[in-house]
Amino acid sequence: MIQQKEIKLPAFRRGYHLITDVVETELAGLPDLPEAGLLHILVKHTSAGITLNENVDPAVRRDFESTMNIIVPENNRIYTHTSEGGDDMPAHIKAALIGCEVTIPITGGKMNLGSWQGIYMCEFRDHGGPRQLVLTVYS
Q: Is the overall model pTM greater than 0.85, yes or no?
């Protein structure tokens, strides 16, 4: 069986934001969450990403931001896609590096994440606006 739900996240400031609780709440609202299965999450945007990583120390999220800004600097002369601002093309590159989807096992009707893992919504734009996720559960 496949269940699917689309959710709208509020606009986040630029950075890496834990959304594990939001996803758990949305999953709890599904009528037939399986004992065992897979959750696939897609972020429907080309300038934002989603990933799993450290969920306790906020320094990790700050270090992600600092490192990605070194790897993919803004306002670089080599970019030709500049009509939407100096943060747009770098946001597309960062989204491609981080990725737009994750798949998480479901065990006992809950996400089966490691003790230190959380789901990050990665906002790469200064003003990205609300973002949409598609949650698909396969059982």
A: yes
